[in-house]
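Many introductory courses stop at the sequence. We go one step further.
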Amino acid sequence: MIKKMGYQWQLRQLMAGRNMFQTSDLVPLLAERGVILSREQVYRLVTQPPQRMSMDTLVALCDILECTPNDLIKPEVVNTQLRKTADGESGPTPIAPRRTVIRRPGQP
């Protein structure tokens, strides 16, 4: 079975559990831990799941919220690809290799 993985970003929920409802509340707390981010960067960090994050930022958030990375990031299966076989059974979608053809200008 081929699984596409994603995650739920729980920062906003953890902040609410600590009575922190303004994204700007994090700016000075992060700065105390050596992580300097603008208000706009912190807003995006709280409202959107980050694609990349420094370990320093992750550790600072865990310290501020007294949590672990597992509390901030909840893995989940986003998409599962299955195919039906002739006998009605479900099985993983096979990955068929494709041959690549390179054509140079002037060649058919």
